[in-house]
Amino acid sequence: MNKYSKYFKNANIIIGMIFILIIFILMTVGFFYTPYEYDAIDVDNKLHFFSAEHILGTDDLGRDILSRLMLASRVSFFIGSTVSVFGLLIGGFLGSLAGYFGGITDEIIMKLIDVQMAFPGILIALMMIAVFGGGTANIVMALSIMSVPKFARIVRSGFIKYKNFDFVKAAKARGAGHLRIMFIHIFPNIMPEIIVTVSLSFASAVMSEAGLSYLGLGGNPAFPSFGKMLSEAQGAIFEAPWYVFIPTIAVTLFLMGFNFIADGIRQIQKEEKNRI
Fold this sequence. Notes:
Blueprint: H1 11-32, H2 65-101, H3 103-117, H4 121-132, H5 136-162, H6 166-173, H7 178-186, H8 191-214, H9 226-233, H10 241-275
């Protein structure tokens, strides 16, 4: 049996993938078709309930909520993906160096990581936004820097665990170089932990961006995002409660999807450890 097949039989992972797939389909369709322009204002039809013309209703300016939701999901996927990839590349590289070589290399890298972790992540984001402004690029930069420590620590612990295993010693005996040992022999063995970290980092980035956008510190103010939609909807919570529920449900599906996947992988790892 394929060693990865057990991951696709886990209920948590399946549920998480379904949740994410719903938002992913919404985003993908939005690249090719939206019912209306996301910024098309029609004040005569503001705060309309679900209808054939507006499947998810309209907002306080008469804009189509479904069209805006399609673009908001694009923003979240872009930010989550970029932050996770940046954290994995930079944090993973630093963590692998620290864990594999140890000694002074480990001490220097982890001191730098500890210094960064001493500051709350959202505080770093707010500081960068205050200095460089609240554009999407600056939001991504701030959240990406925030994601580095978690990847560095996870990868470091994995390298410390495996670097003295017999298969690593055998690779050294055959004359394999450090980079080959690090990224061909050791790195694949910590993929479950990395996938968990990627899932949690993705969810954290989406939540942080939504929070910053809700506070008016997000990217382009004319472009929709989940947090901005929630901020706009709060003034109409009693008049048009569906306007609040729709972006809330969307961001909840996003966050729960990645958390379900992370929980499923952890559950499988725990079962494997119990069998050993």
